[in-house]
Design goal:
Blueprint: H1 17-56, H2 64-111, H3 130-141, H4 144-169, H5 174-185, H6 197-223, E1 229-235, H7 244-249, E2 253-254, E3 272-277, H8 294-300, H9 304-311
Bound molecules: zinc ion.
Zinc ion binds next to loops.
Length: 314
Amino acid sequence: MTQTRPPLIDPDRLPNRAMTDAETLLKRRTFAVERQAVLRLQAQYREAWRDIRDSMDVLPPTSSLWRNHVVATAEQRIGRLKDEVLATVERATKAALVGNYFGRVYALDVATGEDVRVNVPFLSRDILREDYYDDLIRDLLGDQWRSQYDVELDDLIVQIRRAIGTGMSNGEGMSAIQRRVRDAMGVETDRRKGFRANFNRVQVITRTTVQTVANQGALAAYKANSDILKGWSWLCARDERTCPACFGMDGKNFAFKSQQRPPPLHPNCRCTSVAWIKPDALEADTKAPARKSLRDWSRGYGMERELADFLGTK
Ligand SMILES: [Zn+2]
């Protein structure tokens, strides 16, 4: 069955083809970075569950000694999971930040006339230094996302403890208790059902974090080129899943002095921020394709290695 999917960016939404193509590429790659992180998180969850389950087989079940052993293993394992989750999200946000920061400069370069000088921000290498990146991320997101994850994963331990306690006091056998613990973690109960609430929350936080950083990276790139821009514009993904709030923001323009925060507007928001280019800086030929690919362009600035993670070419 063929299904017509609307393009990520409608061709008529942006002033010329080169910009549409560049924005589509950035959106695709940002979604891919998100997806990769989510798949990694799924694998990490499954592995943690396997370790906890294995710990259940070590001692004769349903003694208090057994319960203490399993709970201690679970606490330790969830602690490690926390580190793994943060490392995965940090890697994804870094790729999204770098990709959208330099990607937006690239988009500007291909969307404007050949004679227009686009600022490749002087931060180009500094932004990738760990300490600078940390500062930027802290600035952009505060410690909120970290503590959100902490709360989610601490909650897991409480639920695992409760699952074991309930199973034992019901006099359930090993497999029933294992099922309870698996459900408490939010690990898939069977292949068709997918993941339960716990994992979904972690997934939403990841997606929203990646989108936030991507749009902040874009805004930083626009500010570095404020001489050829009037500001930035809100662009929502217009399809059957778009919410009324995002539709309301769609197409709105914001000057740099505006207090408006760029997307996401809400968890799982798929809106994006595009450059609002001064008309006289635009490429005259609206149908002309980009003169260079992002990969070739980045090579010219020696940024190829840094963008490889985002472009998925590593
Ligand atoms: Zn939105």
